[in-house]
Fold this protein.
Amino acid sequence: MGRSPCCEKAHINKGAWTKEEDDRLVAYIRAHGEGCWRLLPKAAGLLRCGKSCRLRWINYLRPGLKRGNFTEVEDELIINLHSHLGNKWSLIAGRLPGRTDNEIKNYWNTHIRRKLLSRGIDPETHRLIHAPASGFTMSFAKGEEKDRSLLPCEQEKIIGSSSSSSCSSSSGEGSRQIQKYRCPDLNLDLCLSPPPSQQQVEECTRCFSRCRGLQLTRKECKCDAFLGLGSGLCRSLEMK
DNA sequence: AAATTTCGCAACCGCTGCCAC
DNA sequence: CGTGGCAGCGGTTGCGAAATT
């Protein structure tokens, strides 16, 4: 047999939280700490289900939350992370101190999605929308040239080159440029590490921009921040 | 100034994996 | 080992605010 139900559906408040409810929740968690969301509403005197309390605390009441406008640095980091992780909002949030998965998800859907579309980039695949189908498949598979992942910068380089054969050619200037921009094969065995500080996040993205600008590979960069993924995650996404 | 449309965000819903029984 | 609840996650919805007509 399982445990008893977390809460009765009847007599449960729904919708926006009031100031009083917020105060009760904050006071209770300050006094008793997080945990056991099932029992928390009753103990705190709230007519809410545990799930709702957890969401409210994590997304809005928990200390250390930033709230408000995202910086350019954060924008770029989210885009970079999303290109590698997809809609894994909790993982992405883990690399952005003070931001929640819900906030990032909303921000992605309202701002970044539009931003990428205006650049002609498909927000789902991070590929140019009108790129030719062959050779542009987004994949995490290792070692297959035809399925390799492309960063927007790489796609721009290819599209921007004058020769129509630059993509398929294995020699010449065009292919050398493509080689410099290659997205590394990915090892997605992500390791857990403490989230980076704000300073690390900014440094990370600065480095990423610098690497892209100078066309540096990870080895040339010799920096843990390569790919703008923060030290821990960055290391786990190293080139093979 | 009023009506309508669009946008952004907070909160809910439903699914999944884990784990207590 | 099977059942069912819990916590966490991603997708979706609903509502208030802002912009437009």
Summary: The first helix of chain A runs from residue 19 to 32.
